[in-house]
Write a structure and sequence with these properties.
Helix Hairpins, about 75% helix, about 260 residues
Length: about 260
């Protein structure tokens, strides 16, 4: 199977980075492109949520551009090239799918995950703790979910959901006490404990805390925009009671739609 467009794209990136290429592309480094990698990944996720194939195709192209740029920069430095990236990924996928490319038998997707984690541990021999290898760049909420799941894998789990609810309520009480003390450092510490406990509550119920918050953010923005449409005067002039009534009106209007 041939992929002429992919090969031509790799060559386009090489030319852009060459002496006769684009000044902007030539100036880029792994560090300067770091924000772009994050931004393009998020935009691809937005396209997935929109369920738009055309938009997703475009955004995946932008993600691929980042991969190719980083690979070209590394190639110029003599570190690795796009072929090395592809080979390492291919070898990893084959190694972690012995039920497809080997003789291992699995009965469910859960078995696949168990085997994947076991093989990953064998590969990452430098990792001594369950907490090793967690990204420092992802959102704190995503990190909290991964930290929680890693701990559960070795059995560090609440005995029942009621105990977890007790933990959440206890953290709320401790935060209230910190607020009464007016100690910002203590308040920050206790708020962090609340958020971490809530992430565990979401995990317990097999919910993705990140997706839950994304949904809540979108819902709030939609209702706020409706409030702006319904407002009969500048929002800055609304009292708390007027805001409350406007919020409820916006909620009702959106339910009708």
């Amino acid at each position: 199977m041939n992929y002429p467009n992919l090969e031509e794209l790799i060559e386009v990136i090489r030319v852009l980075r060459s002496e006769n290429g684009c000044p902007w592309d030539r100036e880029q480094t792994h560090t300067s492109l770091r924000p772009n990698m994050i931004e393009e990944a998020y935009e691809a996720v937005d396209a997935i949520d929109e369920k738009s194939p055309a938009h997703l195709r475009e955004e995946l192209g932008d993600v691929l551009l980042q991969v190719l740029l980083h690979s070209q920069i590394a190639s110029e430095a003599g570190d690795f090239n796009i072929e090395d990236v592809a080979k390492e990924l291919k070898d990893k996928l084959i190694h972690r799918h012995p039920h497809v490319f080997g003789n291992i038998k699995v009965n469910s997707a859960d078995d696949v995950v168990v085997n994947w984690d076991k093989l990953k541990q064998e590969e990452k021999t430098e990792r001594k703790s369950q907490m090793d290898g967690i990204s420092k760049s992802q959102s704190a909420l995503m990190s909290a979910q991964k930290i929680s799941k890693r701990a559960v894998k070795v059995g560090f789990e609440w005995d029942k959901v009621e105990t977890l609810w007790d933990c959440v309520n206890s953290e709320l009480k401790e935060f209230k006490e910190a607020c009464e003390e007016k100690d910002l450092t203590h308040m920050e510490d206790e708020m962090g404990d609340i958020l971490f406990a809530v992430v565990n509550l979401a995990r317990w119920h097999k919910l993705d805390a990140e997706q839950c918050l994304i949904t809540a953010n979108n819902k709030f923005m939609k209702r706020f925009r409706k409030m702006e449409e319904l407002a009969v005067k500048p929002l800055t002039e609304y009292s708390f009671e007027e805001f409350d009534a406007l919020w409820k009106q916006a909620k009702k209007e959106l339910i009708k739609q």
